């Protein structure tokens, strides 16, 4: 069963699924580079928003060439 790309993920869940740190994703969300919303203390995003962010990244400095696909 495939996961719906509109399912909400906490940034911690997204970080684990896509191979980033939670703090990095939080900073991106605060700057508006990653589409996410804050609900109480938690930031939430979707798989679709994560994939959009990954596709929009520009290679700078040390660049992660291999990103993990989310677990299914």
Text of the CATH class of the domain at 8-56: Mainly Alpha
In CATH terms, what is the architecture of the domain at 8-56? Orthogonal Bundle
Work out the helicity level.
25-40%
Order of helices and strands: EHHEEH
What is the CA-based Rg, rounded?
Answer: 12 Å
Overall average pLDDT: 84
Largest sheet: 3 strands, antiparallel
Looking at the chains present, what oligomeric state does this protein adopt?
A: single chain
Tally of helical runs: 3
Question: What percent strand?
Answer: 15-25%
Structural class: alpha+beta
Quantity of strands, as a count: 3
- Give the overall shape: globular
Query: Distance N terminus to C terminus?
Result: 8 Å
Low-confidence stretches: none
Report the CATH topology name of the domain at 8-56: Arc Repressor Mutant, subunit A
Strand arrangement in the largest pleated sheet: 1-3-2
Describe this structure in words.
It is built from three helices and three strands, in the order βααββα. With 72 residues, the protein is of the alpha+beta class. It is 39% helix and 15% strand. Strands 1-3-2 form a three-stranded antiparallel sheet. The protein has a domain of 49 residues: Orthogonal Bundle (Arc Repressor Mutant, subunit A), CATH 1.10.10. The model has no long low-confidence stretch (mean pLDDT 84).
Secondary-structure topology with pairs:
Layout: E1 8-10, H1 11-18, H2 22-31, E2 37-39, E3 42-46, H3 47-56
Antiparallel strand pairs: 1-3, 2-3
Helix pairs in contact: 1-2
């Amino acid at each position: 069963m495939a996961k719906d790309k509109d399912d909400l993920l906490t940034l911690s869940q997204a970080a684990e699924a896509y191979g980033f740190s939670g703090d990095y994703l939080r900073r991106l969300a605060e700057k508006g580079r990653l589409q996410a919303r804050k609900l109480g203390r938690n930031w939430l995003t979707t798989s679709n928003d994560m994939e959009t962010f990954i596709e929009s990244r520009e290679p700078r400095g040390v660049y992660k060439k291999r990103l993990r696909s989310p677990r299914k």
